[in-house]
Amino acid sequence: MGVSVRSFAKINIGLRIGATRPDGFHELRTVYQTIALHDLLRVNVGRGCGIEIRCDAGGVPDDESNTCYRVADRVLRSLRLRAKVTICIEKKLPVQGGLGGASSNAVATLLALERALKQPLSAEERLRIASEVGSDLPLFLLGGMVLGTGRGEQVYALDDPWPLPCVIATPQVGVSTPEAFRRWDQLAAARGKLTRPPISSTINGFSHSIFAWLSGSSTGVPSRKDGDRAEALLLDLVRAGIENDFERVVFPEYPELRDVKRAMERVGARYSSLSGSGSTVYGLFASKTEARKAAERLREDGIRAQATTTLTRREYWRKMFL
Ligand code: C5P
What we know:
By secondary structure, the protein is an alpha+beta fold.
């Protein structure tokens, strides 16, 4: 029995890094937003035992370090089942790109495997497995616009705004997330010597900015045309001053990524940011035409870029299974 599934990517709209916790992780606040770009996965279940990962793209491990392997192993244990599981990954998303590809693939495996085995897990068990395997997995159990707290694994579904056209630029640079956190710690230690607000106040400030954004003039005005709504939503986003802390450590290390953000703004993005720890830089646009033209112009400048759209929760689930 085989199940095919789309494994969608995410971007981060703002990301605040807080204190290091006793478990070594950092306290985070972020808004995750799923987008229409995706990998394709096929999960097959047969007689026997073992988990096999097949992927023709470079940089994807085929052993037990693969997030899909780790999830499949936990699903089988949780259901007390023996089976031969084969996971084929058709990779289109960049590896180490800040789009959550590996995390999304893992959740897609979980959902497809449940279907293939015809044995659904409880919502609590899904969440337990996902958060055990990585901080960025649980968001993909919700899809759409999601608030992430804790180490990023505590997730809350936010009301989806209208789908926003966006451009995803994927420079061929892999940024290591643990390394980016280490650099953040060095920066925070250096800043600690100066008189700056304690880190927890910036963490709290994030929820104020999100509140300011999502309760702004753009929401709840049904008479507006889609383009006007997008325009107002993006204006509120810029006004709210929502930023990604990783830019402060990743841009100095990879100045070419700052240049991509500048290029994104030059071609008309209303809001542009690094996604997660990068290297993806995205831009949000008020119309599909603007996004398409912007992607073309970036490609002319030698930047790998494609136009797509944010994906509401409803569309995320509607399009998931093939
Ligand atoms: O949970 P995940 O596997 O994505 O985390 C990868 C690494 O990123 C962790 O081992 C940790 O070094 C770092 N991390 C962190 N704080 C977070 C999330 C991740 O320090 N909130």
